[in-house]
Amino acid sequence: MRITKIYVTKLFGVFNHVISLNMEDKITIIHSPNGFGKTALLRLINGFFNSRYSELLTTKFTEFGVEFDDNSFLRIEKTIEKYKEDKHENKLIFYFKKPGLNRVQQFSPSLFRESINQFKSSLHMISRYVPNLKQVGARTWLYLPTSEQLSLEDVFQRFPDFLPIFATEIKPEDKWLLKLKQSLKIRFIEVQRLLSFSEVRNSELEYRPVSMKASVATYSQELAKDIQNKLSEYGTLSQSLDRTFPARVINQELTFNLTEETLRNKLIEIEKKRFRLIEAGLLDKDEEQNFQVENQKIDDRTKSILSVYIEDVEKKLMVFEETANKIELFKKIINTRFRYKKMTVSKDKGFTFTTPDGNPLSPTNLSSGEQHELVMLYEFLFKVKPNSLILIDEPEISLHVAWQVEFLKDLQAIIKLANFDVLLATHSPDIIDDRWDLTVELKGPVE
Known about the structure:
This protein has twelve helices and 19 strands. Among the domains are: 1-109 and 173-185 and 385-447, P-loop containing nucleotide triphosphate hydrolases (Rossmann fold), CATH 3.40.50.300; 219-321, no CATH class. The two termini are 37 Å apart. Helix 6 runs antiparallel to helix 8, helix 7 (260-279) packs parallel to helix 8 (300-318) and helix 9 (321-337) runs antiparallel to helix 11 (401-418). It is 38% helix and 23% strand. The strands form five sheets. The chain has a six-stranded antiparallel β-sheet with strand order 2-1-4-5-6-7, covered by helices on one side. The protein has a five-stranded parallel β-sheet with strand order 11-17-18-3-19, with helices on both faces. A three-stranded antiparallel β-sheet has the order 8-9-10. It is an alpha+beta fold.
């Protein structure tokens, strides 16, 4: 499912905005003067789909809507409801209509601001019940997989199944609502992106405290871990194929159909793939076998063995294909942009840098602009799931004008590989460059 249109009425009590997304190019750019609601719009989208209803509560609007490519639509209304003689609170009502169905589905989430007070003495227990959730403030929690800071309301709305003793007054969300939010992955790349949260494990038994860490350091470690996971998958597959190799060779003797020329060409292609994976940092150089078949004639028995060998190696190397494509594009863009330093990738250290004289350079010692570029590219390539909608707030921050001009071209190349949609907010005409056809201007009220 893809979003085709977004609208909001009375944003901040003033603005009415309608944004039609560019479905073909997959990139939509919103621009306006400061204070017209660009970031607020991104937060509203993220707030609904990632169950951060505090974003919807704290942003002033009357109605917020989303239309989808299957002609279904979502409408969110916010009203003020009196719940005590002298107290009022905001109320959210979600409406969802699918084509072909006469009934409009409706849900109003529990906001429970008063009833939650009875749990104040037990709030420190919440992180024990929800996996990967750490308390970082009096009423603030960090969800480690996404580095999101969640309010108490966000935690209760997103993880009610993990908090049965706390959430007795929370109305469970309807299946249609859960299915809708699961149908589209939203990732919000905010202005503050150079720091991320990480947990420190002192031992297997000790409590793991949370600390702030440079995103480039965190992502470098993540990439190393991802490569190690791929190597583990490669090893498991290799063991499985090697164990059945003799039996398959025997069966292949009667059925092989590769010609001698095809065998030689495939062996050459395999060596090229190995070299490519070595360059990408996915295989060690000492794994390169330089296996070649001399020009002598290959008998039928050898053809049978080579046919099975080639088939097995192609399956093994295919484990790395997607990761290799991403690393190659990652290195190409970074090594083109960053002057007087070179990026390399390895299974032990993730991405690292060297200066022209060969000295190592830590990613945390890169300039602010270089770190912003690195973080965004890594997010796009390695943290975004296919068919997601990516929300980007001010991608131009700390980037040189020349890099801003190249930003959309880099993004288009990544989208072609990773397949996602983008909605970005910018103040920079250099980010837009010559692609004003992708833009939507947010305007003030008609006077």
